[in-house]
Amino acid sequence: MKLNKKTLSEQIYQILKADILTQTFSPGEKLTLKQLQERFEVSSTPIRDALTRLTEEGLMEYYSNIGVNVVSLNREDLKELYEFMADLDSLAIRHAASHPNQEALRKELEENALASARFLQTDSRTEEDQAHWQALSDRFHLIFYDYCRNRRMCAAAERQRGQLTIFSNQYSADPAALLEIEREHQGIYRAYTDGDVELAVRRMQEHLMHSMEFALELVKD
Fold this sequence. Notes:
The chain is mainly alpha-helical. 71% of the residues lie in helices and 5% in strands.
């Protein structure tokens, strides 16, 4: 696979990240530097750069001069992950509620909610449609971080959401789970735009706990 030499590291990063999030690579799968060099037809330097970024995001475990293992999460890991994100997303909502430009925040939430609702009105959905909805779903959570005015909180969320997306990509393919996720997002949106921040927080926490149950069904151990 030949790549644009000006952005080798970025392209490799994006390709490998997509492979992880869609489980083209299995959890725990080992990838060697030699294998990746043969795939991308480049030196080890841009590959190492991409692997470093993926490791920092918690999507890979990187072993210098050897290669990487795709992250693998057990049931206890998932419980910790979803409980942490429930607390962090709730904190982001509370911080966002003090942002001076509430009109812009609510407009973004509304646009996201309308776009997600339109997706559910589509009778036949392609893989591209599903990927678009997943991006909207992820974006719904991240809107609050954009307005929370706390860089460390945003960095923590970015690192953890990658691991969460590995599982949400799978369980949101189930129509029943997708409808439940969408219903809960709409409930959070309505509570926040109605000015009831604490109700939005409670609904966000409940939403992450329900999503955790969907994720746990995918893990056997």
